[in-house]
Amino acid sequence: MSLTVSKAVFSFFKKLEKNNNRDWFNDNKAEFKAVEQDVKMFYNAILDKLNIHDEIDKLKLFRIYRDVRFSKNKLPYKTHFGGAFHRTKPRLRGGYYLHIQPNNESFIATGFWQPAKEDLLRIRKEFEMDDGDIRTILAHKKFNSVWGNSFIGDEVKSAPRGFLKDHKAIDLIKKKQYIFTKKFTDKEVLDENFLNEVDESFKAIRPFFDYMSDVLTTDLNGESL
Predict the structure, then answer these.
(1) What is the 3-state secondary structure (H, E, C) of the chain?
(2) What is the Cα Rg of the chain in Å?
(3) Cα(160)–Cα(117) distance, rounded to whole angstroms?
(4) What is the pLDDT along the chain (225 residues), one digit of tens a residue?
(5) Dist CA 150 CA 39 (whole Å)
(6) Cα 89 from Cα 37, distance rounded (Å)
């Protein structure tokens, strides 16, 4: 099993960036299949690592074909690989994502991209009632050395309906997504330690995932759902 990302992956995507059309892709499909196979092995190596310290029920490697039906960008192919690792639900919440793209655009991400309406309300209600635990997690030295001390993602402009605009936790409550990201250079991605770096970074998110899993499997009284 391949434990590193091949230089051929970046080489292929750089050529695709300049020739993003069906004729070129079809002429070079054998090269794409080769690098895709290499990357699949790398994603599966991460899956194996994650399952040592977590429970992942599915790995989804996204297809290279773009859905252009509702996009102004009509280029037919993505110039990156993306793969998501889904934790075993409903007991475990949250997910992991790895994005491999040349020109220093690679990154990993964790958290909650599109929480269900009921989950988003439950999270907001938890922060409204008590924001102490989440702020302790975000402030932890090891945690924020990897992921920083604040969420990224979309948010409402002021306050969601039913919440006070001047609530002390409004910075958390107004979020619509609860995401963390970490960027990597091309050199870092190609390094033989990249697999371990990704795994160790994902390990560091666990206090947040453990907390959120507890929140989303209980009511506001702490009773199991």
Answers:
(1) CCCCCCHHHHHHHHHHHHCCCHHHHHHCHHHHHHHHHHHHHHHHHHHHHHHHHCCEEEEEECCCECCCCCCCCCCCECCCEEEEEEECCCCCCCEEEEEECCCCCEEEEEEECCCCHHHHHHHHHHHHHCCHHHHHHHHCHHHHHHHCCCCECCECCCCCCCCCCCCCCHHHHCECCEEEEEEECHHHHHCCCHHHHHHHHHHHCHHHHHHHHHHHCECCCCCEC
(2) 20
(3) 12
(4) 458 999 999 999 999 999 999 999 999 999 999 999 999 999 999 999 999 999 999 999 999 999 988 888 999 999 999 999 999 999 999 999 999 999 999 999 999 999 999 999 999 999 999 999 999 999 999 999 999 999 999 999 999 999 999 999 999 999 999 999 999 999 999 999 999 999 999 999 999 999 999 999 999 888 988
(5) 31
(6) 28
Q: What is the distance between the alpha carbons of residues 35 and 205, in angstroms, rounded to a whole number? A: 29
